[in-house]
Amino acid sequence: MTEHPLSRMRRASVLFLLFYFFSLSACVSHLKEAKFYYAQGQRFSRQYQTQKAVASFKRALKEAELEAQKHPSAQAYMLKGLAEMELDAWKEAEESFLRAFSFGFEKGEEWAREVSLLGVASSLEELGLEDSAFRIYSYLVDKSKIKQISILAAQKYMDIALERAIHKEKKERQRLLAAALKTAERLSNRDLSCGFYHYLQSQVLSHIAEYKRSFEEAVMARELGLPTDEIFRDNDLQIVFCYKKLKEKLSSEEWQDFHSRYMKWIEKWNWPDPETPAWRKEAKHAADDKVG
Amino acid sequence: MTYIKGMNTAALEKTIEKGIKFLSEFFPLKTYLYFPLLYSALFWVIKRPKEWKEEIFSWKVFPAPAFIKVKSDEFILNFFEDNQALYKAYEAEIKKRDLEALREAAGCLYRILGLEDPFLSSLFALELEAGDFRKIVEEFDERASQALEDIEAVEDEPRLLKALGTFASEMASLCGDLISQDKILKMLADLLREKIKEKSD
């Protein structure tokens, strides 16, 4: 039986509409999916779930690439660049931000420049040109508007600043440490909710033997969250170290007061005793048995 | 031969052999990776059953900031004084307050003894058992970066993760409730090492 031309046309237009609808929704969903997986990746990385975070960023990148191919836009390239940055693909991220700029994302050019600078500093450091690298990290710590860049640059800056300080004589050492502390404080004041900046402050304060303040900043860092499990553990060991130093240094009255506050914190954190973080007890046999 | 009281040692050995066989497909010439990979899989499956996959490869795989490596003099001294075996090994440097030498050693040992990274702990298990901290320091950079390079080459291979998960779950189920005892995990580590040594010989 032959089909009526009109019904064939009607069927074709229904098919066309269906195709149009699905292709449009597919495009919308690439962008949506890219945003979803990027946000998920950030959530996982905040929870120290590295592998899941990497998987999410890879998925976000794939979706952003598809979106950029089908419907190139500032938003698609910006997401692509952000995902690439998380995956350590700095060159590609720089390129993506420049493309985002060409599609009207005003900050794209500035972002691309910052990514490029971080890459340059890292290469200079690898080549042993620490002074030049330090200057770039310092610039990024002060000027960067991208949180990831600012955090990475701050960590690198602080390691170099502390390394320089510990090799100097007392007076010069104090001067360099005071400058490093000022930078860490400025970062914290700029973003009070960033646990990593409080962690940096706590580390610098430990160098100048300000154990009470170092302890307070480490507690704040712990409460606000830290980017990796390794930093989290390091911060816990700093808390224990401050506890021990304060035990030696505080007067009996001050110690009583500090100790009662400390015990409340460790109860909240489920530590079995003042010098053993919960994770340490959990893993104790792995190291202690072998050491003992 | 290691026997673990109350357990089917033959079944445990069989599971370990399967694990080794699988790893030998991925790393035919890298037997040094078998113990750290199998042990850290077992360790994390027991300790963090929900997040073990992330923990096995929690090495630096994406650009998160690192912890601050430059510690104060007091922190470094406290690290060595707090651990009897470490104190004994570095007594001369501690008494002389040779912070340059102590800093260099802490750069390697802090991640193992301070932050308790199970992968690095098992990579240097023999040296830790022997209390040979100086050997760890001497070989740390070369061995750790070699391991990282070798693992990164197959990190995205889902079969590897699946196999490590199956190995660790089978081991855990063969041990039942006893697995939660630290002593048992230590015995399993010994059995693992014994079988790996047999296979590599």
Question: How do you describe this structure in short?
Answer:
The complex is a heterodimer of chains A (about 290) and B (about 200). With about 290 residues, chain A is an all-alpha fold. Helix content of chain A is about 85%, strand content about 0%.
Number of DSSP strand runs of chain A = 0
Percentage of residues in helical conformation of chain A? over 70%
Q: Based on helices, strands and strand pairing, what is the structural class of chain B? A: mainly alpha
Order of helices and strands of chain B: HHHHHHHHHHHH
Approximate strand percentage of chain A: under 5%
How many strands, which pairing sense, and closed or not: the largest β-sheet of chain A?
none
Rg of chain A, Å, rounded: 26 Å
The dominant shape of chain A is globular
Main interface pair?
A-B, 54 and 44 residues
The total of helices of chain A stands at 13
Question: Whole-number average pLDDT of chain B?
Answer: 81
Proportion in helices of chain B: over 70%
The beta-strand count of chain B equals 0
**Cα end-to-end separation of chain A:** 89 Å
Low-pLDDT segments of chain B: 58-63
CATH topology term of the domain at 173-292 in chain A: Serine Threonine Protein Phosphatase 5, Tetratricopeptide repeat
- State the CATH architecture of the domain at 173-292 in chain A: Alpha Horseshoe
Assembly type of the chains comes to heterodimer
Give the topology string of chain A: H per helix, E per strand: HHHHHHHHHHHHH
Your description of this structure?
The complex is a heterodimer of chains A (about 290) and B (about 200). Chain A is mostly helical. Among the domains of chain A are: about 80 residues, Serine Threonine Protein Phosphatase 5, Tetratricopeptide repeat (Alpha Horseshoe); about 120 residues, Serine Threonine Protein Phosphatase 5, Tetratricopeptide repeat, CATH 1.25.40. Chain A is globular, with a radius of gyration of 26 Å. With about 200 residues, chain B is mostly helical. Chain B has two domains: about 100 residues, no CATH class; about 90 residues, no CATH class. Helix content of chain B is about 70%, strand content about 0%. Chain B starts with 8 loop residues before the first helix and ends with a helix. The chains are: A mainly alpha (about 290), B mainly alpha (about 200). Chains A and B meet through helix 2, helix 7, helix 9, helix 11 and helix 13 of A and helix 3, helix 4, helix 5, helix 7 and helix 9 of B.
